Amino acid sequence: MGVSLSVWLYSRADDSPSSSSSAFCLSVSTSSRLAVTLNSSAVAPGDSRSHWSSVHCSPSFLLSDCKQEVTRLPVELSSDGVRAEMGVKSGLHVWEVLWSPNHRGSHAVIGISTQSCPLWAPGYNVLIGGDSQSWGWELKTNQLWHAGQSLDLYPGKRRKCHPEDVDDFRTISPSSSQKKMAQTPLPIPERALLVLDADAGTLGFVVDGNFLGEAFKNLPRGVELFPAMSSVRGGASIRLRYLNGATRDPPALMALCGLSIRQYLGKQRQNEMDKLPLPPRLQHYTLSNQ
Questions:
Q1: Which CATH superfamily does the domain covering 22-265+275-285 fall into?
Q2: From 43, 109, 156, 290, which residue has the greatest number of CB atoms within 10 Å?
């Protein structure tokens, strides 16, 4: 049955719809561990890992009763940040960040931080990525920030998290057309996923269902890391939700089979899963994990 299913899926692979997202051409192939995690059912919305911290938060932010949303007050000449209530030291973890492009302004940054990252500064600055204790992605310009330095555009070349690595990247001299393409920021929609692999020490992002690769590598191991964001825009509202996670163990065979089936069907045809020639146990697994 397994061989028959593989042949059946392969013979119909050309019928699967392709992505029309502007991020699709910049997407990077994922490991099976990450692919299974991204395609698994999300945890309950009220999970405590979805909460912004009421303590580690700039006073310019209002925290919702559910603790999943912060809204910045219209304070001038102030840079304000917040981090999640719970951090992680190990495992692969995915959070959803919802932030309307119409309410970002300049210096709109999402990323991760340790407990030591400052969450307020006078003037208009990048806070997440503004010091050695945080790593951030500025959504309007696509710039990566760490230790107070703008490292490079993302997506693009994979970056290490240390600013001294910038010179290595600049040894490559791209053509003028490549430079123009690299300097055009990718429009980031309201929804972006933050992907932290604390075991591998990497941070990346998913846009429109496409993994854009590793934004930062060599993150500190064994240190508690928190999703974080910073803003200078009055009225900006940012929601956080923990979606899923995985240990460093390889995915189960059943999970890999379910992933292959969901990828074949695509988002538009998930309701056709019960029509596939699947063994009863595998069909029950795929239907229960939609």
A1: SPRY domain (2.60.120.920)
A2: 109
H helices then E strands: how many in the chain? 6, 15
pLDDT by residue (tens digit) across 35-84?
Answer: 888 888 889 888 999 999 999 999 999 999 999 999 999 999 999 999 99
pTM, rounded to two decimals:
0.78
Pairing of strands 149-153, 143-146: antiparallel
Residues 6+ apart with CB under 8 A from 231: 72, 79, 80, 81, 104, 105, 107, 108, 109, 238
* Structure tokens that stand for 161 in this block: 């998290």
Burial of 82 (0-12, 13-18, 19+ CB in 10 A): buried
Contact (CB, 8 A) for 184 and 142? no
